[in-house]
Write a structure and sequence with these properties.
The chain is mainly α and about 425 residues long. It contains 19 helices and no strands. The longest helix is centred in the N-terminal third of the chain and has 48 residues. The termini are far apart.
Length: about 425
């Protein structure tokens, strides 16, 4: 993999503008030495290529090193600011841990449940903080590698040694590379987690602080992309097949069309929602927006936009299986409602499948969230109000929630009418 692709797949999205602009510097080198010198030498002519005189544009060369120095200064400033911010955050977390330890040491402490919740909250906070340290350390390594490679490319194409000297005398002595405070912060975080929050259990503490390999997600994305493309291909073929079926089916054979389409509408809405969320996630990533932090997802286990496209495409396949069975029920000799019933069955099976497939951790997380929300009407109302009506007065909130529950009842009423007697109309 070329370094430009490696950099693009391993950088932290919200810091995108603060990394080395490797592609720009590489294009500047090609303009500097000319296209003929930039082309690789043919096999067997390497010695001739080494003896070949390369004309280097002196003005572009000076501009190249000014740009590198400017980018290096920007990376130094960004790294120093982030490092100072993380050091300050660790001092705050350590102070909260010390307060908790004092509370636990006091045997007269009555609110033990509150102390346990605080302990778990601090474990989660330190875990997220440790991940931020790993991301900053990755930022340090990627930029240093980028400077080393681009200066090595300059020396190779310009037949010069200036790049190597600049790397040794300037880059290797820059703040972002010389500073080792990040290593101290990592060690302090591990010590706090092991000695104070996990009672000396090193293995347990390190499992909680575990940072997944930053390259594994990009390696898995190739197979995820392949599966998403396969599912989308199946959807495209299904659209054609279902269209042909609709065209040739007799017009007087469409029984119970409206309620069956209402049932299939559930799968359609869910599929479109996942596609829309995947597109939004892609836009957020390109724009450097940290949607993981905004939506409070687990920073170690979350679905990226490619995985969301895969999930949406799989749900689309389930939708078209139901639609296919409904359209071709006339020739298959089965009731039309079998189509939506099979679709609902596949959706339910994919959600509750007790196997480590189909992103089981995400399914478990979603199930817990739904149970916690739907299991308590007060919590559901509170979550809905905070999410959609944070600034409304209490009377307006109550009126809005009454309307919300009435509309929710109507939705349930419409879809249950497929398989049950009519429900009484809501008041």
């Amino acid at each position: 993999m070329r370094f430009a692709q490696h950099l693009s797949s391993h950088l932290t999205p919200e810091w995108r503008k603060n990394y080395i602009r490797y592609d720009e510097l590489k294009k500047m080198i090609y303009r500097m030495v000319g296209e003929s010198a930039a082309k690789p030498a043919e096999k067997g002519n390497e010695e001739d290529a080494d003896r070949k005189q390369v004309h280097v544009d002196a003005a572009l060369e000076e501009q190249f090193f000014r740009d590198i120095q400017q980018q290096l200064n920007g990376i130094d400033s960004f790294y120093h600011a982030r490092e100072a911010e993380l050091a300050h955050h660790l001092r705050e977390l350590e102070g909260e841990v010390d307060v908790l330890m004092a509370m636990l040491a006091n045997k007269r402490t009555q609110n033990l449940r509150s102390s346990k919740r605080k302990r778990e909250s601090l474990k989660l906070a330190l875990s997220e903080y440790y991940l931020n340290l790993a991301l900053l350390q990755n930022y340090q390594q990627l930029n240093h590698t980028g400077f080393r490679k681009i200066l090595k490319k300059f020396d190779k194409l310009a037949r010069s040694k200036r790049g190597g000297r600049f790397h040794k005398e300037v880059v290797c002595k820059s703040t972002f590379w010389v500073s080792k405070q990040i290593d101290d912060l990592i060690l302090q975080t591990e010590t706090i987690m092991i000695d104070k929050l996990e009672d000396g259990q090193r293995r347990k503490a390190m499992n909680r602080l575990r940072v997944p390999p930053l390259e594994s997600r990009s390696q898995r994305s190739h197979w995820v992309t392949l599966r998403a493309g396969l599912f989308m291909g199946i959807i495209l073929v299904s659209v054609i097949v279902v269209g042909v079926g609709v065209f040739y089916r007799p017009s007087d054979s469409w029984d119970n069309l409206t309620p069956i389409l209402r049932g299939l509408r559930v799968g359609f809405i869910v599929t479109i929602w996942f596609y829309a969320f995947a597109i939004n996630t892609y836009g957020w990533r390109r724009g450097g927006v940290n949607n993981v932090l905004i939506f409070e997802f687990d920073p170690r286990n979350f679905l990226n936009f490619v995985q969301l496209f895969e999930v949406a495409s799989l749900l689309g396949v389930f939708l078209f299986i139901g639609l296919f069975l409904f359209v071709f029920s006339y020739w298959l000799g089965i009731p039309g409602w079998v189509g939506p019933l099979v679709m609902f069955g596949l959706l339910f099976l994919a959600f509750v499948l007790p196997l480590p497939l189909l992103y089981s951790r995400s399914r478990i997380w979603l199930g817990k969230e739904l149970v916690s929300l739907l299991g308590s009407s007060d919590r559901l109302a509170s979550w809905s109000l905070r999410a959609f009506f944070p600034d409304s007065p209490p009377a307006g909130k109550k009126k809005t929630m009454n309307s919300f529950y009435s509309r929710f009842y109507k939705v349930v009423h419409v879809h249950l009418s497929l398989f049950s007697p009519p429900l009484p109309s809501p008041p």
